[in-house]
Amino acid sequence: MPSLDEHARSQAILSALGAQGRVDVNELAEQLDVSTVTIRKDLDALEQRAALRRVRGGAVAAAVVDEGSFESRLQARRAQKIALAKAVAPLVQDGDVIALDSSSSCHYLARELLHRRSLVVVTNSMPTATLFSERSEATVMVPGGVVRRSARSVVGLIGDVLAGRGRIDKGFIGAHGVSPERGLLDMSLEEAQAKQYFAAHCRQLYALVDSAKFGSFSLHPVTPTADLTALYTDRGADPGVVAALEQAGTRVHLVDVPEDHR
């Protein structure tokens, strides 16, 4: 195996941890062809980022705040997410190559796009991939990796899969939190990294974030809002945060939620 840099080793460690629940220093050193000293340093660095918890001889998955199952997130603030999806859907044209992350907001967007013709859809969401494959003619690409059961998403080696395949026309991502200083944030390190990979390969990047996420506590940075083509939220968003985002150069679109859907 060619020598991997620290980032690639971290991804391999997290993938193994996601699949097994525990990793062993000696086994990782052999698999990644580096010394046990290097692996221990990698594990220590990941522990400092709250990505895992060190134990004797290796590491186990960190106990983090759960962002909620996919099904529960799909029901939370449903009217707001549907309104955002309907507002964003006209951005997608027949023949586009698009990326959709595993957020519930993007799943609602997917429902609005089933009748677009000749779409190529790249997604790490298993429900979204299933939706397109069963109810549309879209070509669906799901990057390989490890399945997160609660989120019903695939995380891991997304960057490796996308590398060299060209740019994606438009990417759409959600977030667990929005901060003028920190940008978009997520509770899960693996989900944050998956969104980062999508963002790096998209010509245009749009965020769908309902107003409850403004000021919400979250852990891991996804992307600065300055890197977004635009951010869509509903009119319940904190005016102070919206003003700070716009002052920093982020285009924010405020979407109305129909009264009978609230």
Descriptive overview:
- The protein has 262 residues and is of the alpha/beta class.
- The protein folds into two domains: 6-61, Orthogonal Bundle (Arc Repressor Mutant, subunit A); 70-261, 3-Layer(aba) Sandwich (Rossmann fold).
- It is built from ten helices and 15 strands.
- The chain has helices at residues 6-20, 25-32, 36-48, 70-75, 78-88, 104-112, 126-135, 158-162, 189-200, 239-247, and strands at residues 22-24, 52-55, 58-61, 97-100, 120-123, 139-141, 146-148, 153-155, 168-173, 177-179, 183-186, 202-208, 220-223, 230-234, 252-255.
- Strands 6-5-4-9-12-14-15 form a seven-stranded parallel β-sheet, with helices on both faces. Strands 1-3-2 form a three-stranded antiparallel β-sheet.
- Strand 5, helix 7 (126-135) and strand 6 (139-141) form a beta-alpha-beta unit.
- The longest helix is centred in the first third of the chain and has 15 residues, at 6-20.
- The mean pLDDT is 87.
CATH-assigned fold name of the largest domain: Rossmann fold
CATH structural class of the largest domain: Alpha Beta
Oligomeric state, counting identical vs distinct chains: single chain
Could you tell me the number of beta strands?
15
The domain count comes to: 2
> Which spans have pLDDT < 50 for at least 5 consecutive residues?
none
